[in-house]
Amino acid sequence: MSRNKLFKELFTNIGTTGAITFSSKPLVDKMLSFADFKGAKLLVELGGGDGSITKGIVERMDSDAKLLVFEISRNFCDNLEKMFPQENVIIICDSAENIDKYLDQVKADFILSSLPFSLIPKPIRAQIYRKSKDSVTEEGKFIQICYSYLLKYQFADYFSEIKTSFTLKNFPPAFIMICN
């Protein structure tokens, strides 16, 4: 899919993408710097979008690791499947609220998310938070890109430890929440 078509998809579905542009490379690099991919076997990305975060994960993950990428836009999923034909990268065209149906009772080492939680209805948002907490290992992390610091207080209902980081090197500037 061309960059123009990706941007059209982004703007056409702004209610589900929650972004006015894709994540910048400096934001992706900063987000992924909070995950130690060495030895991680199962990784989950919530909101694959244009694949900018997916690309960063694939570049860093071990060759024997598996990555599940959740995305609800069929157009984005089709594009992600073309970009990442590897057998260990599985594109799932479904809502993140169904994460537990795909993990087969195995917990992820990391869940990396760019979901627009501010735009997701409260009951679905709560399910995603709860299922993400239940789906990550004890030592693992849930790492979220967001544009509002106030989301930290929602994460606190599910995660006992939350660290935050901020970057101006994205439009708009973004927070990164690192939850354990």
TrEMBL record:
InterPro entries in UniProt: SAM-dependent_MTases_sf
BP term (GO), one: methylation
Keywords, ordered alphabetically: Methyltransferase, Transferase
GO molecular function, one term: methyltransferase activity
Protein name listed in UniProt: Phospholipid N-methyltransferase
Organism, scientific name: Belliella baltica (strain DSM 15883 / CIP 108006 / LMG 21964 / BA134)
